[in-house]
Write a structure and sequence with these properties.
Length: 115
């Protein structure tokens, strides 16, 4: 089983920045793709960003230019650098990897952006 643990969430003012991390029990380069999702109160879980094994990235339209997904070989972590945050970014953020036919999720980390 793959274990994922998100961290780095917290309270930040609009316009601020925050960096989320996801510690992974397997080598992060073992996965064809890794992704970040988020779920705001009363809303469906939403895809935010992904990175392929080859390093290609893609983002949901509302976060393009503001969020950056990356990997650290040394730390074996997946990260999401978030800037120019708005209250609409408030959500629980989850990292996810597909592995052996299943999507594996962390427990989530809360990001709250105040006006």
């Amino acid at each position: 089983q793959v274990q994922l643990v998100e961290s780095g969430g917290g309270l930040v003012q609009a316009g601020g920045s925050l960096r989320l991390s996801c510690a992974v029990s397997e080598s992060i380069f073992s996965f064809s793709v890794m992704a970040w999702y988020r779920q705001a109160p009363g809303k469906q879980r939403e895809w935010v960003a992904r990175i392929t094994n080859g390093g290609a990235t893609d983002y949901e339209d509302s976060v393009k230019g503001r969020f950056t997904i990356s990997r650290s070989r040394e730390k074996n972590t997946l990260s999401l650098q978030m800037s120019s945050l708005t209250p609409e970014d408030t959500a629980v953020y989850y990292c996810m990897v597909p592995y052996w036919g299943s999507n594996h999720w962390g427990q989530g980390t809360q990001v709250t952006v105040s006006a």
